[in-house]
Specification:
8-stranded parallel β-barrel; 30 strands; 13 helices
Length: 610
C-alpha cells in the first residue's frame, strides 16, 4: 500500500469574511495579508481578524498562512519582528516570506513558506530553501509538469503551485517595471500593473505592427483538468490566486476545486484532503462565472500559443452564444446558456474594443437590453455577470460539517451521552436521573432530539440508543445533554489541534547558495539579507533595484514571447518576422524595448529612454 499523502487546497482571502467563506466552501488552508509587509498592500488585515480566522479554521483542522512577502528595509526589520510574534500569538500557522533577512530575526517557532517571489524554478534553489529551514516552497507559475517532477524528485520539502487565477506576465519577484516607471515596487506590494495597459507595437523603423493591444496581458490560469498530473508530479498544495478578489469569487472557485479534488480522491486513495469536514452547496460551482480573462494552462505542458489576452485585460466571463436576428429594441441569440433579467453581457465591437450592456428582460431566446447596443448578427456574446448566480452567492451558500457518532445509554444512576467525531475526538456527559419505565417507546424521540445539531459544525452521521429498558427521558434532558456534549467535543477538537512548530537556527552555514554572485535580481534590500547570503557563500551582492535603480537593465523577464504569439519564433515555429527588430511597445509617454533570449526561451523588457 502506498503511503497516503495529504493534499491541501489553499484559498485566498482579502479579509475575514472571505477567509471564513473559503473554509466553509472547502479550503484546507487560507492565505491572508499581514497588517503590514504583504505583497498586496491593499489587502492588509488586523491581528484581531487574523486571530478570529485562525480560531474558525482550526475547528476543521484547516490552516491559516499569512502573507508577509515584501522585501524590507533595515529600518523595518524591528517592526517586522514584532508583527511576526503577534501573528504567531494570534494563531497563524505559517508566514509566506520573500526577504531572507527575516531568517536572521529573533523568530517564534512559526513555519516559514518561501513565496513565489523568491523565484523558485530549479531543484538547486528549492533544495537550498529546504536546507535553510523553509517548510513549504511556492514554485514559479511557469514550470512544466516535468520541471515540477524534477524538483520533487530532488527535494523533500512540500511543494505549492498556483492552479487558478491571474497570471503575472513576468517571473514573480523579477519584475521591476512598476518600480522603474512609477516608483511603485511590486516587491513592496505596490505593483501598478503596467502589464495590463494597451500598447502599440512598432518595429525598429517605426512601422506600426499592432495598435492598442494588451500585449503583456495574459489569460487567467486554470489547471482544473490537470490536478491529478500535478499531484503525481509531487505537488502537495494547490493554490488559488485572488487576495484582491471579492467573496463570490472565493466561494465559487474554492467550491469548484473542492469538488474536483474530492472526485479525484475517491478514485485515488493514496491522496486525501488535508483538513476535515464535508461541504454541501446551494449552487453548482462553475469557474467561468467568476472573474476571468479566458483560461490557460500556461506552460504546464510545455509552450503553447494561446496564453494571452491581447484584446482586453477585463473579465470576459463565459461564452453564452451568438447574435442571430436584430429586431427593434431586441435580438435573438443562438446558444445553450439560460439568460436572466439583470445579466451583464459583453462583446467585441468592429474595432475590437470591449462593449457591455445589461439585460432588461428575456423571453425564451429573445433578449431585450436595457439600452440597445450597436451590435450585428454573428457577434459572439459573453456573460461576465450572471445575476441569478450572484444572487445565490450573496446568501449563505455552503455548510461545512464534521461527521459525529452519538451514543445514548443508561447507567446505574441515570444516563450517558457520548459523541465521537470522524477524527476520533471524543466527549462524554452523564446525567443523574431517577429512571422510570415509559408508557410509549422512547427511542424515536431520543434519536430525533439527538439529530438536532444544526447550529454547530457537527452532523449526526450515526446515532445509537443502547438502554437496558424503555426508560422515560424528557426531551429537555436530552437537549441539555446534547448541547453539553457537543460543546465539550468542540473544546476537545480545539485542544487537539496541533500547530506545526519549528526551531529556527541563525547559524546554519554547512550549505551554500547555488550561485556566487547576486545582481539586482536577488532583491537584497537590507543588511541582514546581505549577511544571510554571505554566510551561505555568495561573494558578490548587488543591492535591490528598489535601493539603487538601474538603467539599461531588463525590467521584466517573461516566458511569454510576443514573437512566438505572432508566429515568428525562429526556434519553435521556424518562421521569420517580416518586421525589422528591435520591437517597441508604446503607451502614451512610456516606450519599452523588447529583446528575445532564445537560449533561455524568454523575452526581456527594457525601458527605452531614447
Amino acid at each position: 500500500m502506498p503511503k497516503v499523502r495529504s493534499i491541501e487546497l489553499l484559498a485566498p482571502a482579502k479579509d475575514l469574511q472571505c477567509g471564513i467563506e473559503a473554509i466553509n466552501h472547502g479550503a484546507d488552508a487560507v492565505y491572508i495579508g499581514s497588517p503590514k509587509f504583504s505583497a498586496r498592500a491593499a489587502a492588509g488585515n488586523t491581528l484581531e481578524d487574523i486571530r478570529t480566522l485562525c480560531s474558525y479554521a482550526h475547528q476543521f483542522g484547516a490552516r491559516i498562512y499569512v502573507a508577509f512577502n515584501t522585501i524590507l528595509t533595515d529600518e523595518e526589520l524591528s517592526d517586522a519582528e514584532t508583527i511576526i510574534w503577534e501573528l504567531y500569538r494570534a494563531g497563524a500557522d505559517a508566514l509566506i516570506v520573500q526577504d531572507m533577512g527575516i531568517l536572521s530575526l529573533n523568530l517564534p517557532p512559526i513555519p516559514l513558506h518561501a513565496s513565489t517571489q523568491t523565484d523558485n524554478r530549479t531543484p538547486a534553489k528549492v533544495k537550498f530553501l529546504q536546507d535553510a529551514g523553509f517548510t513549504q516552497v511556492v514554485l514559479a507559475r511557469e514550470l512544466s509538469l516535468n520541471e515540477i517532477h524534477a524538483i520533487a524528485s530532488e527535494t523533500t520539502v512540500p511543494l505549492e503551485v498556483f492552479v487558478h487565477g491571474a497570471l503575472c506576465v513576468s517571473y514573480s519577484g523579477q519584475c521591476y517595471i512598476s518600480s522603474a516607471l512609477s516608483g511603485r515596487s511590486a516587491n513592496r506590494g505596490e505593483c501598478a500593473q503596467y502589464c495590463r495597459l494597451p500598447y502599440t507595437m512598432l518595429d525598429a523603423e517605426g512601422n506600426e505592427i499592432l495598435k492598442d493591444k494588451h500585449l503583456l496581458s495574459l489569460k487567467d490560469l486554470n489547471q482544473s483538468q490537470h490536478l491529478e498530473g500535478l499531484l503525481d508530479a509531487g505537488v502537495t498544495s494547490l493554490k488559488i490566486e485572488g487576495r484582491l478578489k471579492d467573496v463570490s469569487y472565493v466561494k465559487n472557485i474554492t467550491a469548484y476545486y473542492r469538488k474536483k479534488l474530492d472526485a479525484l480522491f475517491a478514485k485515488r486513495p493514496e491522496y486525501k484532503r488535508a483538513s476535515v469536514g464535508h461541504e454541501t452547496y446551494t449552487f453548482e460551482p462553475i469557474a467561468e462565472k467568476s472573474f476571468n480573462r479566458g483560461f490557460t494552462s500556461f506552460f504546464l505542458q510545455q509552450r503553447q500559443k494561446d496564453i494571452t489576452s491581447f484584446d482586453t485585460p477585463k473579465s470576459v466571463g463565459e461564452r453564452v452564444g451568438t447574435v442571430k436576428e436584430l429586431k427593434g429594441n431586441s435580438f435573438t441569440i443562438a446558444g445553450t446558456k439560460q439568460l436572466s433579467n439583470g445579466d451583464g453581457l459583453i462583446f467585441f465591437n468592429s474595432e475590437g474594443n470591449l462593449e457591455g450592456f445589461r439585460v432588461n428582460r428575456v423571453e425564451e431566446n429573445r433578449v431585450f437590453p436595457l439600452e440597445m447596443p450597436r451590435i450585428s448578427p454573428k457577434t459572439i456574446l459573453y456573460r461576465n455577470y450572471d445575476h441569478a448566480f450572484e444572487k445565490l452567492l450573496e446568501k449563505p451558500s455552503a455548510e461545512r460539517k464534521i461527521d459525529v457518532s452519538i451514543e445514548f445509554s443508561d447507567n446505574a444512576f441515570g444516563f450517558t451521552l457520548s459523541a465521537t467525531d470522524e477524527t476520533g475526538c471524543r466527549a462524554m456527559v452523564t446525567y443523574a436521573f431517577d429512571k422510570e419505565l415509559a408508557r410509549k417507546p422512547q427511542e424515536d424521540n431520543i434519536r430525533t432530539q439527538l439529530q438536532k445539531l444544526g447550529g454547530t459544525i457537527f452532523k449526526a452521521a450515526d446515532i445509537k440508543v443502547n438502554t437496558t429498558g424503555n426508560w422515560f427521558v424528557p426531551s429537555s434532558i436530552i437537549a441539555e445533554m446534547r448541547r453539553e456534549v457537543i460543546e465539550k467535543l468542540l473544546q476537545v477538537r480545539i485542544i487537539s489541534y496541533k500547530r506545526e512548530l519549528v526551531k529556527h537556527s541563525n547559524n546554519q552555514i554547512n550549505f551554500s547558495y547555488p550561485v556566487k554572485e547576486l545582481t539586482y535580481l536577488g532583491n537584497v534590500y537590507n543588511s541582514k539579507a546581505q549577511t544571510f547570503y554571505e554566510t551561505h557563500g555568495v561573494e558578490r551582492i548587488a543591492p535591490a533595484f528598489e535601493a539603487k535603480p538601474l538603467k539599461e537593465v531588463p525590467l521584466m523577464f517573461t516566458k511569454h514571447c510576443i514573437r512566438y504569439s505572432m508566429g515568428w519564433c525562429p526556434v519553435h515555429q521556424k518562421q521569420k518576422s517580416p518586421w525589422k527588430e528591435p520591437f517597441y511597445l508604446v503607451y502614451k509617454d512610456t516606450r519599452l524595448k523588447l529583446e528575445f533570449d532564445c537560449k533561455h526561451c524568454q523575452m526581456l523588457v527594457f525601458h527605452d529612454n531614447k
